[in-house]
């Protein structure tokens, strides 16, 4: 009798690298960081909204410009 595709996939899959406790700890860390950011801000100056984040920084005008 042919095996189920689910049995074959279960045997071929690698074991989880993270336990459920690891995942729960990571979720708590993310919640703490998001809460701290929302409550206290990032501490970084605001980005110039007129310039997308992927654009190169503009050079200040040099002599003769």
Rg of Cα set:
25 Å
Mean pLDDT reading: 77
**Spatial shape:** elongated
N-to-C SSE string, H for helix and E for strand: HH
- Runs in which pLDDT lies below 50 for 5 or more consecutive residues are none
Number of contiguous helices: 2
The structure class reads mainly alpha
β content, as a range?
Answer: under 5%
Task: Please count the beta strands (DSSP E, at least 2 residues each).
Answer: 0
Major beta sheet summary: none
Distance between the first and last residues' Cα? 81 Å
Q: What share of residues is helical?
A: 40-55%
Characterize the structure shown.
With 65 residues, the chain is mostly helical. Helices cover 45% and strands 0% of the residues. The chain contains two helices and no strands. The longest helix is centred in the middle third of the chain and has 21 residues, at 20-40. It is elongated.
What's the short version?
The protein is mostly helical.
Considering the chains and any ligands shown, give keywords for the structure.
single chain, 65 residues, mainly alpha
Question: What is the strand and helix layout of this fold?
Answer:
Blueprint: H1 5-12, H2 20-40
């Amino acid at each position: 009798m042919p095996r189920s595709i689910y049995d074959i996939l279960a045997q071929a899959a690698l074991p989880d690298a993270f336990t459920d406790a690891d995942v729960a700890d990571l979720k708590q860390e993310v919640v703490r960081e998001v809460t701290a950011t929302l409550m206290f801000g990032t501490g970084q100056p605001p980005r110039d909204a007129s310039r997308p984040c992927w654009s190169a920084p503009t050079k200040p005008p040099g002599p003769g410009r």
